[in-house]
Design a protein that fits this description.
Helices cover 22% and strands 17% of the residues. The chain has a six-stranded parallel β-sheet, with helices on one face. The chain has a three-stranded antiparallel β-sheet with strand order 4-7-6. Strand 8, helix 5 and strand 9 form a beta-alpha-beta unit. The chain has 255 residues and is α/β, with parallel strands linked by helices. It has one domain: Rossmann fold (3-Layer(aba) Sandwich). The mean pLDDT is 95.
């Protein structure tokens, strides 16, 4: 019998969110490398990469052990301003000694064919996970996500048909309500099989949606459907402005 998901852990900060997130990531990395010799992580874009600058020049980060994927990506060239990879590369990866082969991007050869593009990215996941782990879905050590003011996460938007996708690891959409319209995204089976998922949300503009996600999860907003299956853990790193309307209990952070 399946155990229910572990309840989310919420950390709220007046200051020091970025440094706490850095400590959390480095600890997750250490545990993962000790266990299996590598650290698999998926990133999203938006404001998240700016919160990761504490990883630059951090002596605890073993970049050669990282395998980086994108939880969602805009279907644009890799050097385009809308590209999540371009954002992460500019903010972090161009400033750290990570081997380029350890960063798994969209294949630019397939930008004109969304089916081929998403299939190619799923095959990239299969190469990393299926040959090393014998799970039905990839089990990331850590997935780092943001939220939109409408409650979307990755490129999973309210009311979209991808909210009920149960088989594919990677799916595409041509009708994103936010530009650019063409994107690929991890599906819930991938998000919900991760060992750890951490959301990051800051600013008073996120206060209403954060309360909707955590205080009223039955509302079914896309971010509230991210609930890793046991023993996976779900964390929220938020600032006090974002959590101002939150009734859900907050925990004390310790590195």
């Amino acid at each position: 019998m399946h155990q229910p998901p572990n309840p989310p852990t919420v950390y709220s900060f007046s200051t020091g969110l970025s440094s706490a997130l850095t400590s959390f990531i480095v600890k997750a990395q250490k545990e993962s490398i000790e266990k299996k010799g590598r650290f698999t992580v998926a990133l999203s874009g938006g404001s998240l990469p700016k919160q990761l600058k504490g990883l630059i020049n951090n002596p605890g980060v073993r970049w050669d052990k990282w395998q980086v994927f994108y939880a969602d990506e805009r279907v644009v060239p890799l050097d385009h301003p809308d590209s999540n990879h371009h954002l992460c590369a500019t903010e972090i990866f161009q400033r750290v000694p990570i081997p380029p082969a350890n960063i798994h991007t969209l294949d630019p050869a397939f930008l004109d064919d969304l089916e081929e593009l998403s299939d190619a990215y799923e095959k990239e996941l299969i190469r990393e996970f299926a040959q090393k782990d014998s799970a039905r879905f990839p089990v990331f050590d850590l997935i780092l996500l943001g939220i939109g003011s409408d409650g979307h996460t990755c490129s999973l938007f309210p009311g979209h048909e991808l909210l009920v996708e149960e088989d594919r690891w990677v799916a595409y959409l041509e009708d994103s309500p936010k530009p650019p319209p063409k994107r690929i995204t991890f599906t819930y089976p991938v998000l919900n099989h991760a060992a750890r998922v951490a959301f990051v949300a800051t600013g008073e503009g996120k206060a209403d949606v954060l309360s909707a996600i955590l205080d009223r999860p039955e509302g079914g907003l896309p971010a509230s459907r991210v609930r890793p299956v046991h023993p996976g853990q779900l964390y929220w790193f938020v600032d006090d402005n974002a959590s101002a309307k939150l009734q859900y209990p907050k925990s004390s952070f310790s590195a």
